[in-house]
Design goal:
Layout lengths: L6 H6 L25 H12 L19 H10 L11 H17 L9 E5 L2 H22 L8 E5 L4 H9 L3 E5 L10 H7 L4 E7 L11 H15 L5 E4 L7 H4 L12 E7 L11 E5 L11 E3 L6 E3 L9 H38 L3 E3 L8 E6 L7 H9 L7 E3 L8 E6 L6 H21 L13
Length: 457
Amino acid sequence: MHKKKNKQDLSDHTSTYSMRYSAEEVPKYEMPDKSMPSNAAYQLVHDELNLDGNPSLNLASFVTTWMEPEADKLIAENINKNFIDHDEYPQIEMIHERVVNMLARLFNSPEDQTSVGTTTIGSSEAIMLGLLAHKWSWKNRMKAEGKDDSKPNIVYGADVHVCWEKFAKYFDVEMRSIPMEEDRWIINPELVEELIDENTICVGAILGTTFTGQTDPIKEINDLLVKVKKDKGWDIPIHVDGASGGFIAPFVYPDLEWDFRLEQVKSINVSGHKYGLVYPGSGWLVFRDEKDIPEDIVFKVNYLGGEMPTYTLNFSRGSSMVVAQYYNFLRLGKEGYTKIMTNVVNNAKYLAEKMMDTGLFENLNPTQLLPVVAVKLKDKQDFTLYELTDKLRERGWIIPAYTLPPNAEKVIIMRVVVKENFSRDMADMLLSDIDVAIEKLKKAAPKGTASKKKGVC
C-alpha cells in the first residue's frame, strides 16, 4: 500500500532549478513580499554573480584575489566578530597590536620613539586619518605661536590616489597639486619647494603610483624639508602613501630609504589587501611616534564595556582581515614575503621586456620597483589601447586603458598589475593573446586611417 505524499514532501525533493523561483523575475528594486528557500536564494544570487569577471584574470586591480585555504578558514571563523568590541573580543585587539608593532619595525621605526597605528578599511581611510592628524598638529602649533590657523594647505602630485583630493575637499584644506607633464609622471623636490609655506600641513609622497607604478623621490623630498626646517623653522611632515609599495620595498629593496629612517617621514599607510596579500578591506596606518597624533582627536567611549580610545573614520568593522594579516605574517615571515615579492617583481620585468620586444610599446615604469607594467603606444598604430584592452577582454583578461591626469591628459596608457597569483605561465598566455589581438586589430583596420583613430598616442 502506497501512502500519498503531501505538497511539502514533494517540494523537499524538488531540484533547485525546477522550483518556481527559477521561472520568475528576480526582485531588483523592492523587497519581495514572501520568503523563498535558502537554496533557491543562494542559486539566484550565485548565478547572477557569474556575470562578473574572473578575479584571477583581473589585472586592473591591485587588490588580493587569492589566499590559502587555512586563511579562508580563519576568515570564516571570525567573520561574525566586530573588531571595535575590544572588551568582548580582547584577543583580536591583542593580535591587532602585534600587527601594528610588526609593521612599525618593518618600516624602521626609531628605537627611541613609540610608534602607534591602527587598522582601517583600506588605504583611503588610513590616508585621511594620517592627514587629519597632521592638520590638527599644525593647527595646535599655529595656535601656540599665536598665528592664523584658518588656511591650511597640503602639497602632493597629480600621481596620487583620488582619496587625497577627497581629503582636501572633505576637510577644508587647500589642495596644492603638482601637475604631471608628458615627460614627467612624478613630483620632485624643486616643484615641492615652490608650493610649500608655513601653512603646509604635510607633503604627500607616493611609494608606487596607481597611474604608472613609479615612485616619488622620497629621500630627496625629505632632504629638502630638513633644510627648510633648519633655515625657516617650518616643520613640515611627509606622509608616505605606501598603499602598493609598502609591502614591496622592505623585501625587494631593503636599502631604499623611504620610511621612518627619514627624519620628516611621520606617517605611513599600507594596504593589507594589496601586496599584504589579504582580501579587501584591509589597510594600516602607522605613525612614527605617538606624539604625532594630537590627543584631542582621539575619542574615548565606554558603551561597549570598558573605556577605550578610538581613532577611526569608521566604527564597526569586521575582524577577519586583521586575523588574516596576522596569519600571513606568521605563515610567511620575512623569508616568505621576500620570495613572493621578488617573484612578483621578476614576473613584471619579464612581461615588460617581452612587450618591449614587440617594438610597439614604450615602458612608463622602467625601474619596476612596483610590479606594474604601464605602457603607451610608441607611434601611431592601426589600433588604440582602448581597442586592444577591449579585444583582450574577449579572452577574459581585465586590463584598463586610461589617460593620465593634467597636464598629461593626452597620454593614453595601458596598465597590468602583476600579483602573487600571476605566474610566468600566465604572463606567456597574456603575451600570446596580446599578439593575436594586435594581429586581428591590424587586419580589421581600414588602410590609411591610423592617424584618425580616436585615442592614438
